[in-house]
Amino acid sequence: MFVSERLDEIIYLINQEGKVEVNKLSKKFNVSKDLIRKDLSKLEENGILERTYGGAVKKRKLAETVTITSRISKNLDTKQKIAQKALKLLKPKESIFLDISSINYILAHELIKNNWEITVITNMIDIMHLISLNPDSKVKLIGIGGTCNNIIDGFVGISSINQINNFNVDRCFIGTIGINTYNGNVSTYEQDDGLTKVAIMNTSKNKYLITEISKIDQDGKYNFSNLKMFDCLITDNNISDLITKELKKYKIKIV
């Protein structure tokens, strides 16, 4: 086998499985471990993977900060299906916290449309606006104020956290822009948003991570939690057997 063919095969494996091991590659190609390490180093230089102890993992992207308007309109069908899954987990007259998330905005819309009798606490401006425009709805709104971040469309930081700490809620739905299945890190754009999410989780009996499964390929700038801290991952139906297997080690239920 030519070197280029071996490299192509390694790239295929890393894309399919998310990671590779030096020992297994050495046996598969019947070459020395040192040669495999050189192959991995070359692919790392090309930005395809990241070297780890004993192997390598797929190169991850750093999520770009985008406005909430563009996030809501992207992959709308998938997000609506995820919101419908979340809706089935609720009970009437509960209190829930919807943090800053495009899927949570759609979930709030579903609550209004189905005339749910429920209390929604949120720090997301668009959710506050949506519920306030429907005064005949049975959805009760409690808005969290503080320092406004116009890019992510919500209130975050110490003032918001101090308000959040006064509540006890039945369920919280937390958005994310990055999930790392190898170490369990769950990330967001910036520290203030991350610390606010942690405060929300600390007030909640049941903690749900609500996101598209595509977020496993990227990272935010700030790790605010770990998969093992959530009771459930609510995501789309495109989850592979490999990802499901990776998630099992965190003992998180997948819906």
TrEMBL record:
Return the protein name. Answer: Transcriptional regulator, DeoR family
Organism field: Pseudoleptotrichia goodfellowii F0264
SMART domains from the UniProt entry: DeoRC (SM01134), HTH_DEOR (SM00420)
Q: SUPFAM superfamilies of this UniProt entry?
A: NagB/RpiA/CoA transferase-like (SSF100950), Winged helix' DNA-binding domain (SSF46785)
The record's keywords, sorted A to Z, are: Transcription, Transcription regulation
Q: Where is each HTH deoR-type domain found?
A: 3-58
Name one molecular function that GO assigns to this entry: DNA-binding transcription factor activity
InterPro entries cross-referenced by the UniProt entry: Carb_Metab_HTH_regulators (IPR050313), DeoR-like_C (IPR014036), DeoR_HTH (IPR001034), NagB/RpiA_transferase-like (IPR037171), WH-like_DNA-bd_sf (IPR036388), WH_DNA-bd_sf (IPR036390)
User: TM segments?
Assistant: none
Specify the domain of life of the species encoding this protein.
Bacteria
Name one matching Pfam family: DeoRC
PROSITE patterns, per this entry? HTH_DEOR_2 (PS51000)
